[in-house]
Amino acid sequence: MRAVQVLVCLALMALGSSALAHHAFGAEFDPNRPLLLKGKVTKVEWVNPHAWIHLDHEKEDGTTESWMVEGGTPNTLLRRGITRNSLKPGTEIIVDGYQSKDLSNRANGRNITYDDGRTLFMGSSGTGAPRDGADPTERATEEEQQRLEDVRDEEEGDSEEEAATETESESEAEEGEEASEASD
Amino acid sequence: MKTFTIAALTSLIAVPLIADESAQTASDEVAHESAVDAVPIVAVEIPRTATGKPDFSGTYDIKTITPLERRPQSGNETVISAEAAEGWSNAVKEGNRAEDNRVRDPDRTAPPKGGDGSGGPAGNVGGYNRFWIDNGEEFTKVDGEYRNSIVYYPENGRRPGWTDEAIARFTSMRAHWRQNTGRAYWLDEDIAGPSDHPEFLTLSDRCLLGFGSTGGPPMLPVLYNNVKRVVQSEDTLMILVEMVHDARIIRIGGEHLPDDVRKWLGDSIGWWEDDTLVVDTTNFNDTPALGGATRELHVVERFSMVDEDTMLYDFTVEDPMAWKDKWSGKYTWPKTDASIYEYACHEGNYSIQGMLKGARQAEKAWYAEQGETGE
């Protein structure tokens, strides 16, 4: 599994300067303001260049706070059959990311998952199939729970290897940045 | 799709050399050999316009995992075996699906303060996850063979070295590059800040050009939004680039604009050489989409249809201010049934105000640290 991930990483690296995102996240979000948001989706702005998912974050004191989270281009998801109705208001999600530098309630969707940890939109065409996230009462299956355990074990066991991989990936990303700078 | 069928039928009528059944079943190898022999053994059906010209109209998805440059250890070998290509492709698919299906800890905590160490455009805050990415899972196939790089000249499949002028340029840029720490470092150094003005932001941030030369020329595959829509008339070829919705207008039979007229995507004119549309682009402004290129960039592209559903895209880049030699590449553009959607970049561009306001906030924090108001 790890080998496959490294291979994917290498494939991305091979693209070099192509592996850029539309926006410079580093210019938009503050590395000193990490956050974890949990709550119900209130709406999704299905707009280019990046989709924005709005949620009511449930704070420890029981009150809620409105946040919006940046995702990627919606066109890719549309082609996969996911529509503006696939992530319905009321769906519980968890987001880890960083707050925007302007200190407004915006964050990057570094990882957006359902409340049971499944990757957002996972295995769903968004057309009402079971477990497409539309029903917030659905929980992870036993198999998925096991997979979660495996992921935890793997992350604990492979921390050194992962660090090495990330370093490699980062250096390549910097090469990409060099190309980006060159074009600016 | 119906339009395309009509175009294809037109081509059958317009072309005297009509393909027989064997053409449809001809193997890639035969097609390759016939190209090498320069005397076609079989005619491959390609769509044609009412006047008999090749018809490029249609929608293409140009994503591929064939990298721009070849791995050095492959030397001058241009192809990758079918076994290796398919094995690699399957591994990429498996890895992507695994990542798509990854279950994260619902009890996870926030990422680390000070940044997650991610480099490049993820800028120490991690960007967003793989689900939004759509950069292909197949190698490009040219003449029936999987290619191990898009670049084919120089023979090592890698771009030639940078000129001294280019290296000096990059060195200067690199001197101003800083890791994202959230601090208004430009005030420490008394230099212009990266977001002092909207025009200091990158072209893709400003919705002017997509990143990674997606609009080109040359037009290269990128991380996502790789769909192109081609509309053709007798005197014009228009290529709509999905990302940022740039439209290249190529004047077939036209002449270049005066040298002092400079454009983001350059000035493109085209002419026919048999069934190939040759497109010559000059008159770039100071910042072409192609990384490292300058206003001296000159690109020659060769568009040809290899069958009803596949275009071969071949290009040569010259820029004496950037590279020591010219370089050439090619890959195929498969047609797709996928739709190309609108890309209302400016309307949804919250990021640009986020960056500008964020820089102002960082400056306020810097002044507060100094006991100043910054007014």
Spatial arrangement of strands, main beta sheet of chain A:
5-3-2-1-4-6
Low-confidence segments of chain B, given as residue ranges, are: 1-36
Number of DSSP helical runs of chain B: 7
Radius of gyration of CA atoms of chain B, rounded to a whole number:
24 Å
* H/E series of chain A: HHEEEHEEEHH
Silhouette of chain B: globular
Structure characteristics:
heterodimer; A: 184 residues; alpha+beta; 6-stranded mixed β-sheet; 5 helices; 6 strands; 35% helix; 26% strand; disordered N terminus; B: 375 residues; 10-stranded mixed β-sheet; 3-stranded antiparallel β-sheet; 7 helices
Question: How does this structure look, described?
Answer:
The complex is a heterodimer of chains A (184) and B (375). Chain A is of the alpha+beta class. Chain A contains five helices and six strands; from the N terminus they run ααβββαβββαα. Helix content of chain A is 35%, strand content 26%. In chain A, α1 (2-15) packs parallel to α5. The radius of gyration of chain A is 18 Å and the shape is globular. Chain B is an alpha+beta fold and 375 residues long. Chain B contains seven helices and 13 strands. In chain B, the strands form two sheets. Chain B has a ten-stranded mixed β-sheet with strand order 1-6-7-8-9-10-11-12-13-5, with no helix packed on it. A three-stranded antiparallel β-sheet of chain B has the order 2-4-3. In chain B, β11 (298-307) and β12 form a beta hairpin. The longest helix of chain B is centred in the last third of the chain and has 20 residues, at 350-369. Mean pLDDT of chain B is 86; it is low at 1-36. Chains A and B meet through α1, α2, β1, α3 and β4 of A and α4, α5 and α7 of B.
